[in-house]
Amino acid sequence: MSLRMDKVNSEIKHKIADIIRKEVDDPHLGLVSITRVRTSSDLKESRIFFSVLDNNFARTEKILTSMKDFIRLMLGKKIRLKILPQLTFVPDDSIKYSVDIYKRIEEVRSVERRNKGDKGP
After folding, report:
1. Cβ(61)–Cβ(91) below 8 Å
2. What is residue 119's predicted lDDT score, i.e. its pLDDT?
């Protein structure tokens, strides 16, 4: 990916996160984090990857998808691009996956500590 596309993705990521935090008023929308953005090289489509604190990805995806035209309109007011991409919201469960892996590692460490304690000096 080119440096220019990296900058475009970063700018879209920050602007959309700001729009969701400040402009989207939905009581059912929990704490949403925009984890990454992938924009096509022709700037026609951006895939917006998100994570949510309550792990209710389906509800959050439905809300964000229903508001994507509003979010895109607000994005157009905050960013200057030759072509404003269409937005597609995609759940990103990589954070949940990382937490699950960490928990499993801690469980294994706990078992190993108990086993070492049972052997005595």
Report:
1. yes
2. 59
